[in-house]
């Protein structure tokens, strides 16, 4: 199962559109957005009525118009825990918003933890304290390209629990 992972689109529609087009071309099975759409008009690009695949999304710290965003993305939450392809995925915009219990649902480490916020790419496996199995920590970087000059997304392979960071040409 291939998952498209995106974060920090910050109303930059040209790069957001290119990222969604890339995900469609890759035939991803679902999309995870780790927050900071910013305005409801930007979120409309991935509204459930537009996407033919499941969308999982969380609020970011810059998503101030929560009511408007929730009208476009009704399942939007502060953080989520999802099981797909027998893998547990925890997603929150900001890693510091997660408590240890959030990362270990049912006392088992999540297979993948997706975050955004920093605009910095993270793609590494770590072992959570007190546990033996590893967890993939994934931040796809920023789709907007405002801070780093790069528009990046990730493709997450749930079979191997690995991710590839992709630069989307601006």
From TrEMBL:
The keyword Amino-acid biosynthesis does not apply. Residues 1-160 form the Calcineurin-like phosphoesterase domain. Transmembrane segments: none annotated. It holds the Pfam family Metallophos_2. It is an enzyme of class 3 (hydrolase). This is Phosphoesterase. Belongs to the metallophosphoesterase superfamily. YfcE family. Its cofactor is a divalent metal cation. It comes from the Bacteria. Its EC number is 3.1.4.-. Keywords: Metal-binding. It comes from Poriferisphaera corsica. GO terms for molecular function: hydrolase activity; metal ion binding.
């Amino acid at each position: 199962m291939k998952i498209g992972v995106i974060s920090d689109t910050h109303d930059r529609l040209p790069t957001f559109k290119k990222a969604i087009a890339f995900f469609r071309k890759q035939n991803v099975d679902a999309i995870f957005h780790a927050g900071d759409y910013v305005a409801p008009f930007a979120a409309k690009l991935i509204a459930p009525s537009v996407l033919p695949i499941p969308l999982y999304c969380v609020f970011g710290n810059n998503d101030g118009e929560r009511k408007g965003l929730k009208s476009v993305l009704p399942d939007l939450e502060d953080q989520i825990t999802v099981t797909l392809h027998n893998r547990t995925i925890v997603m929150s915009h900001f890693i510091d918003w997660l408590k240890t219990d959030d990362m270990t649902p049912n006392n088992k480490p999540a297979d993948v933890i997706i975050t955004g916020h920093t605009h910095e790419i993270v793609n590494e496996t770590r072992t959570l304290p007190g546990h033996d199995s590893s967890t993939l920590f994934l931040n796809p970087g920023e789709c907007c390209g405002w801070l780093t000059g790069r528009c990046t997304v990730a493709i997450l392979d749930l079979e191997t629990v690995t991710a590839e960071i992709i630069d989307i040409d601006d």
